Amino acid sequence: MLELIKSGGWMMWPIVTCSVISLAIVLERLWTLQGSRVIPANLVAQIWQQYNNGGLSPQHIAAIRDGSPLGKVLAAGLVNLHHSRDVMKEAIEEVGRQVVHELERFLNTLGTIATITPLLGLLGTVFGMIEVFSAITHAGVGNPAVLADGISHALLTTAAGLSVAIPTLMFHRYFNGLVERYVVRMEEEALKMIEVMLGEREQGAGRQAA
Question: I need a labelling partner for 209 at 20 to 30 A (CA). Which of 45, 102, 134, 170 fits?
Answer without folding.
Answer: 45
